[in-house]
Amino acid sequence: MSSQEIPEKNLPSEQDTAHGAVAVAEDPFADPGLPPHKPRVQDIDERAAKRSERTVALLFTLSMLSTIGFIASFVAFPVEKIVYVWPLGHVSALNLSLGVTLGLALFCIGAGAVHWARTLMSDVEVADDRHPIEADPVVKAKVMSDFAAGAEESAIGRRKLIRTTMFGALAMVPLSGVVLLRDLGPLPEEKLRHTLWGKGKQLINMNTNEPLRPEDVAVGSLTFAKPEGLEEDNHEFNNEIAKAALMIVRLQPQDIKDKRELDWSHQGIVAFSKICTHVGCPISLYEQQTHHVLCPCHQSTFDLSDGARVIFGPAGHALPQLRIGVNDEGFLEALGDFEEPVGPSFWERG
């Protein structure tokens, strides 16, 4: 039904419209425009602007001092130093000092930038029309002009104190990352190629902490051993056992397929590295019927009756074997170190 077909008595009268009975809908997409700009105190008072400038410079300076504190803490506090801090309790002095100083350095840079933007940079809102993504020469010229205007409005050219301290803070913060490279430690040199095993080192049972005799190892059993002299209270215990951990299995000599494995065994007792050659997980699952050992991390499987070669999984090479014998007292002993590095491959291994 068109408006011409609506009875005249049903149309709103001018009186109804005047009293608000029927209102004409406003355009919901109308441009509301920008509110009038209100100048800040820093815009009209140079003394207030100077105070803001000094505040920003102070924050950047605190950031530089915190970075220096970070480096000093890294040098001053030993790793083992523990301090009591309420309410955190007993914490590492090194970790606490590094976290506080680095956090303060980054916070002061952010706080200084925010205070600079809110008090000294131009806060005039500018409305601009959208344009195609591809920029034409006019737009490029406008962008460069806007950039130059923004640089001018930021007052970075006139506020030399802010500029100098900001560049100083930004230049010094990366030094924290450079200092952290010290945690990578010294070069490994030959440490990855050698373990604590050597000629005459007795095989110590990891469970009983007693030397092993051949009769202690039953056919089909799996025993774990460590080198003689390596104690759990040793500061380097974890580093050394990660290379020297040994698993011992007794097989029937006729079941050993690899000649070198048989030559390096003692009465069917073979000793292999416990460290998986994939990513270094400890191997602990043994299937006595097949003589296979399984790494629980990624299911690499090794055949202990055939030189511990890889028969399944992502491991790259066989488990290193340790040559063993019996000393004059009847205890199992190593006849040397592993002939190849234990664990995963590394780029210098060759």
Automatic annotation (TrEMBL):
SUPFAM superfamilies the UniProt entry points to: ISP domain
Domain Rieske stretches: 238-333
Keyword Cell wall biogenesis/degradation: no
Membrane-protein topology: Multi-pass membrane protein
Alphabetical list of PROSITE patterns matching this protein: RIESKE (PS51296)
CDD domains: Rieske
InterPro entries listed in its UniProt record: QcrA_N, Rieske_2Fe-2S, Rieske_2Fe-2S_sf, Rieske_Fe-S_prot
Broad class of where this protein is predominantly found: membrane
Pfam family, one: QcrA_N
Keywords, in A-Z order: 2Fe-2S, Cell membrane, Disulfide bond, Electron transport, Iron, Iron-sulfur, Membrane, Metal-binding, Oxidoreductase, Respiratory chain, Transmembrane, Transmembrane helix, Transport
Subcellular location: Cell membrane
Residue intervals passing through the bilayer: 56-76, 96-117
Family of the protein in this entry: Belongs to the Rieske iron-sulfur protein family.
Protein purpose: Iron-sulfur subunit of the cytochrome bc1 complex, an essential component of the respiratory electron transport chain required for ATP synthesis. The bc1 complex catalyzes the oxidation of menaquinol and the reduction of cytochrome c in the respiratory chain. The bc1 complex operates through a Q-cycle mechanism that couples electron transfer to generation of the proton gradient that drives ATP synthesis.
Protein name as catalogued: Cytochrome bc1 complex Rieske iron-sulfur subunit
Name of the gene encoding the protein in the UniProt record: qcrA
